[in-house]
Design a protein that fits this description.
By secondary structure, the protein is an alpha/beta fold. The protein is built from three helices and three strands; from the N terminus they run H-E-H-E-H-E. The chain is 47% helix and 22% strand. The protein is elongated.
């Protein structure tokens, strides 16, 4: 039963959306760390909208510097209303 639970947990893909404002980035880091701490085995994807090229670059560099597992990703989309 425990093996089945582990396999099922690897199938959960957590997705959340934010913009690139600093307070949202800080909260996103906390969500990534929380997922890691509880043993989230499946992917965790942050969808970011409306980022300037500078903020996009900063966000990518920051994520890389956190040393999180490879299944923690960012996906950038244009701003939408």
């Amino acid at each position: 039963a425990q093996e089945l639970a582990r396999q099922e947990s690897a199938e959960v893909h957590t997705i959340f959306t934010t913009d690139c404002h600093p307070h949202n980035m800080w909260q996103s880091e906390l969500l990534f760390f929380s997922a890691q701490r509880v043993g989230q085995r499946g992917p965790v994807t942050q969808i970011l909208s409306g980022c300037t090229p500078e903020r996009k670059q900063h966000a990518e560099q920051r994520l890389a510097s956190l040393g999180l597992p490879g299944q923690y990703k960012m996906h950038f989309v244009p701003e939408f209303n």
